[in-house]
């Protein structure tokens, strides 16, 4: 950041309502109270019988001071700090705010804690450990933009996050902390329940399914601004005059379990896997980045890359929803991809041809290739199906699937050719149905 930008950021922060200084004990300001190991899949329930230590309102205030008020000056603070979304897209937050401010219809702001990626657990862990940090960010956002409604949106099966959130909301209500009433809403048990337009549609009384990709032109139409809960936790610190933490929340799968880690942006993927217990002597052949709708990356390409979105984008990759799944050297990447595509096809919105027909066809071709029983011309059909689906769906779900398939073709290209010639690997037969 240059001197002019630094000066503008300081001026914007000076315009915010005064709040108590951050206690020294909060340095460094971490988003989580600690790393944790979770159950293998599903909600972010810790493995083992120990209780989750949730920070209550008194401890939250002791650590960070009282919640600051939100004002329009926060727009410049967020823009100057370069805050981006941490739900998958990593879009600059200030762009979403400005888009939301263009109209004058009723505005709803949403903290999205619905982790629909089956492996992901960072958002649920954050809500279990420090719900008030997320709620501070939500209310500050509502005040800054003059919102009419503030909602915390959760996945339907995440009972642990819901309990922690309801207790925190009740604490705040009893102590009169917020002017806005915080609604806690649980969506359905569906992969698409955390998609932004699906949330918008559900909160307006419709089904929790993505809407067609067309811009809203009515300036008086209702507006909905959706931010991931990690993004709002970061906002709560920025509003207090703190810097955005130099850490990243990740869900990492290893032989020792599913781990939620808070790592520094300068850490490499080698560092991250070591922290998660991946055996150093047996490096993976590839990583799945971002979850089921993410992309494969060869281990040689990313092992020394920092776990930071700009560093990954420089090599054509991204963190997505902060999920890192290593693929063992003796596993079949094509079989694993076929299983993922089969799952994603079953979780489609079923609102258009690419979802209804394209995704199941992709899954079937991949399964045949992985098993070494694909008919002649299967490779050509795979590429043709990708082209027919990509960019043509009513929502972005099919695009995530074609991105996953494209990355598999690139990373496992040699295996793909071998399988097409009828030479499946032993791992493939056992993994297609997982």
Automatic annotation (TrEMBL):
Q: Where is the NADH-ubiquinone oxidoreductase 51kDa subunit FMN-binding domain?
A: 80-235
Ranges for the NADH-ubiquinone oxidoreductase 51kDa subunit iron-sulphur binding domain? 338-419
Q: Which residues form a coiled coil?
A: none
Top-rank taxon, per record: Bacteria
Q: Does the keyword Iron-sulfur apply?
A: yes
Signal peptide as annotated in the record: none
Query: What's a Gene Ontology MF term here?
Result: 4 iron, 4 sulfur cluster binding
Q: Which InterPro entries match?
A: ComplexI_51kDa_subunit, Nuo51_FMN-bd, Nuo51_FMN-bd_sf, Nuop51_4Fe4S-bd, Nuop51_4Fe4S-bd_sf
**Which keywords does the record carry?**
4Fe-4S, Flavoprotein, FMN, Iron, Iron-sulfur, Metal-binding
Protein name (record): NADH dehydrogenase
In its UniProt entry, the species of origin is given as Cellulomonas soli
Q: Please provide an example of a Pfam family that matches this protein in its UniProt record.
A: Complex1_51K
Q: Which protein family is it in?
A: Belongs to the complex I 51 kDa subunit family.
Cofactor requirement: [4Fe-4S] cluster; FMN
Task: Give the source lineage, highest ranks first.
Answer: Bacteria, Bacillati, Actinomycetota, Actinomycetes, Micrococcales
